[in-house]
Amino acid sequence: MAGIGEVVEHYITTETLESKTGQWMQEIAAYRWRRSEILEPAQSALLVVDMTRAFVDPGRPLASPNAAVIVTRIQQLLEAFRAARRPVLWLIQGHHSVEADRRPLLDSWWPTPILEGTSDVEVAEGLSKEQGEKVIVKRRYSGFYQTDLELTLRSFGASSVVICGVLTNVCPYLTAFDAFYRGFRVYYPADGTAALNESLHLSALSNIAAWAGHVVTCAEIRDWFVAP
User: Fold this and answer.
1) Which domain holds residue 192?
2) CATH number, domain at 144?
3) In a domain, 27, yes or no
4) What's the number of domains the chain is made of?
């Protein structure tokens, strides 16, 4: 039976990310059926999903070799939101124990546990959480599932969310659909997300663009923050 290692593809580098992003935006153009609405910074929040060592550090069982490439782009988003004094929320996959919150299905479907209190849940190198930024620990893929994410966003007066992180087609993806279901406007940066391979990345971007949100670039998001 094939494993994660057999589908991994190193499809971006720091040098190729810009050109690849342009290529992706062209490839998903057929699914962008509506014009992207301008992001209103004063009503937005940034969700950083699973940018932790478990998913970014080379050699870890669940890590994507593409995750480290987007760190700089995510850092730029962090700087924009922090400068505008808008909320940054860190959504981190973590488990108390295998027995407490992984059995029976998740433990068999996804046998590599990410446990609280280990280095797996530490923020990836190149990123840092600032004082006051909330960490929401999720037990499943979506950041909304049995967490207080929605309550937190409503408390901040956020009607739009920018969702970045890994893996493009799993946790940020399902969080984006759950945000859409709850009436939040979704912005999904093509160069602020990364997958195990390019096919999964493009498929997720196409589906988000068609059915749940605005697929944009990190540069577009930053420009909205500095627009007069």
Assistant:
1) 11-31+40-226
2) 3.40.50.850
3) yes
4) 1
Tens digit of each residue's pLDDT (9 = 90 or more) over 79-97: 999 999 999 999 999 999 8
Q: Name the band, by pLDDT with cuts 50, 70 and 90, for residue 1.
A: very low
Output the CA torsion 156→213→124→110 (10° steps).
110
Helix 171-181 vs helix 198-211: angle between axes, to the nearest 10 degrees? 0
Give a yes or no: residue 6 inside a domain: no
pTM of the shown model: 0.96
Is residue 102 in some structural domain? yes
How confident is the model at residue 111, as a pLDDT? 81
**Residue numbers annotated as active site:** 50, 138, 171
In a domain, 1, yes or no: no
Residue with tokens 């530490």: 122
Per residue, the 3-state secondary structure of 179-223, as one string, reads HHHCCCEEEEECCCEECCCHHHHHHHHHHHHHHCCEEECHHHHHH
